[in-house]
Design a protein that fits this description.
Blueprint (H helix, E strand, L loop, with lengths): L4 H10 L6 H22 L30 H6 L4 E2 L2 E2 L8
Antiparallel strand pairs: 1-2
Length: 96
């Protein structure tokens, strides 16, 4: 079940990609291999496997949410190229 170059062009157009002819040929082969692998996965018996969000089965370790010491205002503003009395000056990027 190989993908044709026409199918690759169609997928590329949907993704708004411009492909050279050699890229179309290479992607045709690569996408065909991917689809063949997906077919192999479809053949696996997963009836006893519980659904999960990820494969490791472990949750991410979290630290306690606690206030910890940080920079005081003078230290933070010392690194600013244009410090203001109450914050940092940044270039305006939005018109409003």
């Amino acid at each position: 079940m190989g993908l044709t170059r026409e199918q690759v062009r169609h997928v590329a157009a949907l993704a708004r990609l411009a492909l050279a002819p050699d890229e179309e040929e290479r992607l045709s082969r690569e996408l065909t291999r991917i689809l063949e692998y997906v077919e192999q996965l479809r053949g696996l018996d997963v009836s006893g496997v519980e659904p999960s969000a990820h494969g490791s089965g472990q949750s991410a370790p979290l630290r306690l949410d606690e206030v910890r010491p940080g920079l005081d205002r003078a230290q933070a503003l010392a690194a600013a190229p244009q410090p203001l009395a109450d914050g940092f000056a940044v270039p305006r990027i939005l018109e409003g």
